[in-house]
Amino acid sequence: MKKTTLIARSFLALGFVAFGMAAQAANDLPGKGVTVQPLKSSLAEEAFQTLLVMRALEKLGYTV
């Protein structure tokens, strides 16, 4: 086997390992099993921000 082919295959394998590690990290949600209760404001602008934060927390695994 040529040296350049061996090096290319090594880099390809390393890339697959790195991709697998990143995918595993994405599956671990920091808020899994944690319940939070957001504070809501009567101001429209702050209520919209609260909705955005609630959505983001849910995507991180928190129960809102």
Describe this structure in words.
It is a single chain. The chain is elongated. It has helices at residues 3-27, 44-59. The mean pLDDT is 74. The N and C termini lie far apart (56 Å). The chain folds into two domains: 1-29; 31-64, no CATH class. It contains two helices and no strands. It has 64 residues and is an all-alpha fold.
How would you concisely characterize the structure shown here?
The chain has 64 residues and is mainly α.
* Number of domain units: 2
Distance between the termini: 56 Å
Q: Main beta sheet: strand number and arrangement?
A: none
Number of strands: 0
Could you spell the SSE succession in H and E letters? HH
What class would the helix/strand composition place it in? Answer: mainly alpha
Integer-rounded radius of gyration? 21 Å
Average of pLDDT = 74
Helix fraction by DSSP (H/I, runs of at least 4)? 55-70%
Count of DSSP-assigned helices? 2
Low-confidence runs: none
The oligomeric state of the chains shown is single chain
Task: Describe the secondary-structure layout.
Blueprint: H1 3-27, H2 44-59
Question: Which key features would you list for this structure?
Answer:
64 residues, 2 helices
